[in-house]
Specification:
166 residues; 7 helices; 73% helix; mainly alpha
């Protein structure tokens, strides 16, 4: 198998598991602190409106709902986790699969916060780095913590996969 195929075979379970770990963290955080869960239906709505040339909204929640937006949002959420896992494998190299370390995984996880802060939030009406939200600092900290948890999930998933494959 070539390097691209090997990375893809490993990126799928690592990205899926790391994303699931991040979602589990969101459930625990909601139970402990009352923080609302992300609404991936709105992500699906935002993406679905793109096919009609609408990339930016004043408030995505006020945009017309689209069929299967929740399923689309969740699918893209997990696909994005897989893409970032693939990025980790490309940046860290094949040695990371044999001996996963936390720093590259954490760096990719924390780096992945750029996607919501600079792309999704502005496109969905929250402004760059959530500056149009009622409490931008809290939103930024939540995003940063969530993506750091994703990075820990990448490391844990890579370590688990190494044990399973060995």
């Amino acid at each position: 198998m070539n390097a691209v195929g090997e990375y893809l075979v490993h990126a799928v379970p690592i990205g899926f598991a790391a994303t699931a770990f991040m979602d589990l963290f969101a459930l625990v955080r909601r139970r402990v602190s009352g923080t609302p869960l992300p609404d991936y239906a709105l992500v699906g709505r935002w993406l679905a409106h793109m096919r009609h040339g609408r990339f930016r909204h004043a408030a995505i929640a006020k945009a017309p709902a689209v069929r299967a937006e929740r399923a689309l949002g969740w699918a893209v959420h997990y696909a994005t986790g897989i893409v970032f896992a693939g990025l980790l494998l490309v940046l860290a190299g094949p040695g990371w699969l044999r001996d996963p370390t936390v720093l590259p995984a954490l760096a990719v996880g924390i780096g992945s916060v750029a996607a919501p802060l600079l792309l999704m939030q502005p496109g969905m009406g929250a402004g760059i780095a959530a500056w149009r939200t009622p409490d931008p600092t809290a939103a930024r900290v939540r995003s940063l913590v969530t993506h750091a948890v994703f990075g820990v999930g990448l490391y844990l998933a890579g370590s688990a996969l190494r044990l399973i494959v060995a």
